[in-house]
Amino acid sequence: MRTTRKLAQADLTVASSVDAGEQSVLFTGIRKSYGPAVVLDVDELALPFGQVVGLVGENGAGKSTMMGSMAGSVRPEDGSIRIAGQGLPLGDPLQAQELGVAMVSQEFPLVGQLSVAENLLLGRRASTHRVIVDRRAMNAAARGMLARVGLDVSPRRRVDSLSVAQRQLIELAKALGRSPHVLILDEPTSALGPAESQHVLELARKVAEEGGLVIFVGHRLNEVRDVSDRIVVMRNGRVVADLAPGEATEQRLVREMVGEELASAPPIGEPSSDGVVAFQADGLEAEGLGPLDLAVHAGEVLGIAGLMGSGRSRLLHVIMGARPSTGGQMRLGGRQYSPRSAADAVTAGIGLVPEDRKGQALLADAPIRWNVTLAALRRLAWHRLVIVGRTERRAGTEIVARARVRTRSIELPARSLSGGNQQRMIFGRWMAVRPKLLLLDEPTRGVDVGAKAEIYRLIEEERQEGMAILVVSSELEELFSICHRIIVLRRGRIAAELHRSEFSKERVIGAAAIEQGVA
Amino acid sequence: MTQPATADPEAPVPTDQLPASAAGARGATARVLGRLADSPEIGIILAVIAAFVVFTAINPLFSSVSELQDPLGIDLAGFGILAVGEALTIITGGIDLSVGSLTALFVVLSAWFNTTEHIPVFFTIVLTVGAGALWGLWHGFLITRLGIAPFVATLVTFIFAVGADEAIAPNPIPIHSSVFLAVTGNTVAKIPIAVLVFVVIAIAVWFFLERTYMGRQLYAIGGNREAARLAGIKIDRRVVLAYMISGACAGVVGIIEASRLTSGTADSVSGWELIAIASAVIGGVSLIGGQGRIIGVVAGAALLVVLRDGLVAVNVNAYYQSMVVGVVLLVALVTDRLRVKRLERTGSRRIARRAASDSPAGAAGKSP
Predict the structure, then answer these.
(1) DSSP letter string over A239-293?
(2) Fewer CB within 10 Å, N- or C-terminus of chain B?
(3) Do B229 and A342 touch (CB under 8 A)?
(4) What CATH homologous superfamily does A1-100+180-261 map to?
């Protein structure tokens, strides 16, 4: 199979005997930073048409930022991108589309209330009439697009009645429908089963064979190796390796992704009261999750690693009662625990610092005081009803001091704080409640190094007080430095469990990304 | 508990520190005034006073006692009570379009209870207000259980109730009970009973919003629903409660209007839901939810009432009234946006300064 690919490529190169620069996507000096953090810094990278290029790297390595720059959803500060010799205006999604760039990712979601056909043809004219929608023509066009991705659903169905995998294929069909020159696939198979994944890989090959450039961002290394003509590895915003499939063994890829840096683990104390199980799940199941067993002890920090879509956040949401479980049992502090809502979870003694601070945690316009007392307010209230100003202010001030939130006053709106301070404030919201089990979802996302260290210190302090802590993080260094144990999830199940002495990036990434067995 | 890092580089107002003695020198009265001057409601309160003075200057009778009692006082009671209930639903990020036509329905219903069914006044009131609360419960059910948008759920009632009051009372039902008529006819210390009812309700709702944990949770729900949910707030119950209070307020206003009209007349009020919403918005309640205070809502209602009755008192043609109210609403909204923008631009310096002098953290910094 590989030989035929090579042939097709050779044909293409011969057929279009144009200057090589005209036949590629060229990145020059592309830079993007958020505040002080440089997330993308690529001096030069040329990706010729007619190839599938695999793009791999850890979370936060800059892959999505680079792809976003090409699709126009991210605007780099500096540099240029040329597509087949034509300059691409930066940060302009429409221009990118016109130059033939199509991207499949979670960033351009489907409209759930519309039908499959409407979604596929959204923004395009399906009929010759200007105003009136010709449903028959639309559905026929949609059927053709669906057939291409091998998806057998009626074009009339509402998108929100479809499974995640089906939606993913519709995204792909939508992108292919634009007959793109450059097709960016950002983890297109993360939600798919093996057969569907295979089909997507074949489609990617086909687009490349027809002369297009396919950029395949993937976490499952075996898939990436299978489909790609070359593999680009990114780390810390830079391109660190550009490998042919022959040299790109999984071990090599993991090494390039991880880099030479040492996982420096500042000392953490041992779990204080060994043996006391704070939280336990047996055969826990939910949509796309489990069955899985796990136990967290009082005074223990348990890390959860895994790729995007492996069920990490989902697990936390099931424990928090924010998503229904479909099977299995949970026990909290020795007692049967079956939450039907987040309110049940909080009452039972569980807290969550969610992943999306702005969307899921922050009352941005409300004073800091409101933010920190939010979950504990009823307990602070006189007769569990009336808020006594002095009591609340005292509690608020104390929590703010303990959580090391730096502010002149707890009456300032929460949005006046920096990201790290906001995160500590949300952490403080739970310190005020003192739950038995604290769930942390990406606790240091988007905060700088100094703020990270302070958050680690807070975690360690609460742990010493006997709190059980469950941390989801995409940063392995983070898990290594604060966790006693790590479980690795893959497709909703536990793929590996590592104790502190066994921590290594190779092991975690191996378990998370490589399909066959544990490394 | 120490002062959380007054000299910290991350502090939003690092260079603009208040001299240590300044705050101490300010008296309590000055502080209250200062706080009022900083409050977003001050503009509306001044506007009410200004409008009142202007109308009195043109027609001195406008501020006579009888005029103040009725129509001014009773109008304020009606609009004010509706606006206060409405504000609760808006603060949760919803809206209640039904209060106007529900009021019209309850005008008829209360007269029917009392006159046709011979139910004593006390029980008439209980039944009417209870019906309002039940209706709010129904709205809450539609919104939280079935996920129907508040706008639509209450719009259904709005349309239904417009017809229902005529169905119950094709002809006006006269009210004979002197106790019923006393609600608007009698005064205590020259204040009509309806106005006292309004004052009690406004204070109760203020207390609920600002001094109970449930009120705070309403703000949190409107401010960031997902955050509120993940913090363990029982969102559905709180939202239902807001609509129940709003419905009950419509019941109270129905009684007041029936008493004033001395009969249960269909189509007695119309468009009052818009006045209630406008009062809330003029008073600083954000339609996005999560923001607004009762003092502002009351001031907003007062402004609309003074304008409405004032324009009548100075013989302005009726159709100009609506236009004036529209312009006032626009001015209030624009002024508020400008104020917010200015605050954002200047880094909320004044708020910061005030906050630093109010909070114990700031106080600790000042008197070592």
Answers:
(1) EEEEE-TTT--HHHHHHHHH-S--------PPPSSTT-EEEEEEEEEETTEEEEE
(2) C
(3) yes
(4) P-loop containing nucleotide triphosphate hydrolases (3.40.50.300)
